[in-house]
Amino acid sequence: MTTAQTLTPRQIAELYVDCWERKDFTDLAPYLAADCEFTGVFGTASGPDEFLAGLKGMAAGTDSLVVRKRLADDADVITWFDLGMGGAPATAVANWTHVENGLITRVQVTFDPREMLAAR
Fold this sequence. Notes:
single chain; SnoaL-like; NTF2-like_dom_sf; SnoaL-like domain-containing protein
């Protein structure tokens, strides 16, 4: 798969968050590898369809998303952000995005979900 525009891993991670905030992942889809994997607190996903379905579900419940810091190297990006969901207080989240050949191959996310679960 080739993309219309070559982006750096940092730019792809920025696009990921931008799409989440807009709740529209059309722009992100071309940057997902066919065998991309997601691992997070609320589940896992394999392949672009599951990956995007999971993100759409998270985005639908998102009240706020504020990026605090982003660190990147040649293939990996860590985005630290505060995520507000379901009326719960914002929760600190670490998102690790791994990019190979211009495509996201892995995303791992970690955070403490207790306040989000309590707000349900």
